[in-house]
Amino acid sequence: MTWELEGRYVENCSCEAICPCTWSNLARPATNDDCRAVLAFRVDRGAIDGVEVSGRTVVLAIVTPKLMIEGNWHAGLLMDQDASDEQIELLTKVFTGQIGGPMAGLAPLITEFLGAERAPIDLDVRPDGGWSLKVGDGTELAGGALQGPESDAPVTLTGIVAHPAGPTLTVTPAPSTRWSLLGIDYAGEDRSGFTAPFSWAA
């Protein structure tokens, strides 16, 4: 089975400032007792085994121990309401790592898969690096690009190895976070966030 996806990615997690799990490639502990994260992927162009999946949006909700590399993740997927049954089945295979790609490296850490469901999803990513994500009635997230004091360029993390979106992430802190997805809940202020283009193939 061959497949290819590319698009935009956004992330918000319960860590303060810049998530240490991310910049350490999962080797540093989260800043709270566990890590609760929302990872959203807007597929601008893609096909899986010949099935078109362009225009689909996939949200991965996870809760992990304080040290993510220890495993015991609980994770589930939500996909936009227009996704067909076939698209959901194929995208689930990609996002659970069943058919290779970046998620295959994280799949062994997931001990409980919470399933895949449809939901109203609205993901907007702006040219300036800012983004907003709404899922159903209980989840509203937004982030803005962090800039240095003497530069208009956004702050980025580079050389990331274990992140599915790739080795370079734009830092986009979220001033306010509120979400409830697949039995995982979180609310907080000044939380970690990132955005990046992503391009996967297998």
Topology of helices and strands:
Blueprint (H helix, E strand, L loop, with lengths): L2 E14 L3 H4 L10 E15 L2 E2 L4 E9 L7 E8 L4 H11 L14 E10 L1 E5 L5 E5 L3 E5 L12 E2 L11 E3 L2 E8 L2 E18 L1
Parallel strand pairs: 5-6
Antiparallel strand pairs: 1-2, 1-13, 2-3, 2-4, 4-5, 7-8, 8-9, 9-12, 10-11, 11-13, 12-13
Our count of helices gives 2
| Relative helix content | under 10%
By DSSP, the count of extended strands is: 13
Q: Indicate how many domains the architecture comprises.
A: 1
Order of helices and strands: EHEEEEHEEEEEEEE
Name the poorly predicted regions. Answer: none
Q: How large is the share of residues in beta strands?
A: over 45%
* Separation, N- and C-terminal Cα atoms: 8 Å
Q: Report Rg.
A: 16 Å
- Helix and strand content put the structural class at mainly beta
Biggest pleated-sheet summary: 13 strands, mixed
Q: What general outline do the C-alpha atoms trace?
A: globular
Mean of residue pLDDT?
A: 93
3D structure, described in words:
This protein is mainly beta and 202 residues long. It has one domain (3-201). Helix content is 7%, strand content 51%. Strands 1, 2, 3, 4, 5, 6, 7, 8, 9, 10, 11, 12 and 13 form a 13-stranded mixed sheet that branches. The longest helix is centred in the middle third of the chain and has 11 residues, at 85-95. The protein is globular and about 45 Å long. The model has no long low-confidence stretch (mean pLDDT 93).
